[in-house]
Design goal:
The relative contact order is 0.20. The chain folds into 2 domains: about 50 residues, no CATH class; about 210 residues, no CATH class. The chain is an alpha+beta fold and about 290 residues long. Helix content is about 20%, strand content about 30%.
Length: about 290
């Protein structure tokens, strides 16, 4: 869908309508829609814990389906490895650059700042100055649960209101500051390997975003930033544990400091923009 068409459409109304439709128990109609989706996008149901399309009472239940436990092995903790948190494709990754140390590369000719991404909060962005980022795109066919790259303790969560443009590669290349424009849920963690941020970016037709500790974060969609702070040890999640999910697809952005835990971060040498990725594969290591 072109950027011009997206600008003309009532994106929020369409997203809310899609969310209601996807949560409706439609019986045979729901099963028909799921089968059509599987055929259209080539979804591999052999990986699903429940491979029968008729077993899902709503489209959302299908879209956030669990995988068989052995389908996604997690990279070894002994290697100080950060596991990829999602299935999808690499949009971009690398250093957070510019003189300010705040600019994240989006696509050719486009950047956005860590401060913008984190809801305009410069104090939250400061630990990631001149650090590292990875932007991971989840297409409709992908598994849509999000997992922990390492064991961590949640410190804060923010819901940042915003627009609802598509986050596909074409829109990312055409629309400046896309990931700082769209609605997002920011999750900040402390770990034995240093802090990191995991940002769930909303998009057109994404009915809601959820976390395992909070449930549905949006809707509601109020006009201002909402923030939750957590006590030390209140929310602890293991490496590979589910931390959230999208109800219809979107993008995840990760941020790291320049030297997490005082060590150099090295991205997987096999990574390149556009490459397909799977949850659990090595994303980065610390030297």
């Amino acid at each position: 869908m072109s950027l011009l068409v997206q600008r003309l459409l009532p994106r929020r109304a369409l997203t809310e309508l899609a969310g209601r439709a996807a949560s409706t128990r439609g019986g045979a109609l729901t099963t028909w829609a799921i089968r059509r989706f599987i055929a259209r996008y080539g979804v591999d149901m052999a990986e699903a814990a429940e491979p029968d399309p008729a077993a899902y009472p709503t489209f959302n239940d299908f879209f956030t389906r669990a995988l068989r436990p052995e389908a996604r092995p997690i990279c070894s903790e002994a290697l100080a490895c950060w596991a990829c948190p999602v299935d999808g494709a690499i949009s971009q990754f690398g250093r957070i650059e510019s003189e300010s140390g705040e600019e994240i590369f989006q696509a050719k000719g486009h950047t956005y700042s860590t401060v913008e991404l984190l809801g305009g909060n410069a104090a939250l962005a400061e630990p990631f100055r001149a650090g590292h980022f990875a932007t991971l795109y989840l297409s409709p066919r992908d598994y849509h649960r999000i997992h922990m790259p390492v064991a961590g303790t949640l410190t804060r969560m923010l819901h940042v209101p915003g627009d609802l443009y598509s986050v596909n590669p074409a829109t990312a290349a055409a629309l400046p500051r896309l990931f700082a424009r769209n609605e997002r849920v920011v999750c900040l963690f402390g770990t034995a390997l240093g802090p990191f941020a995991l940002v769930l970016v909303g998009a057109a037709i994404v009915g809601s975003m959820q976390t395992v500790w909070h449930g549905v974060v949006n809707p509601p969609r109020p006009g201002g930033v909402r923030e939750w702070q957590y006590l030390p040890g209140q929310i602890e999640l293991a490496r590979g544990a589910e931390m959230g999910r999208f109800l219809l697809g979107s993008t995840v952005v990760l941020l790291w400091p320049a030297a997490p835990g005082g060590r150099a971060l090295r991205f997987n040498p096999d990574w390149t923009p556009g490459r397909a990725i799977r949850m659990g594969e090595p994303m980065a290591t610390l030297d």
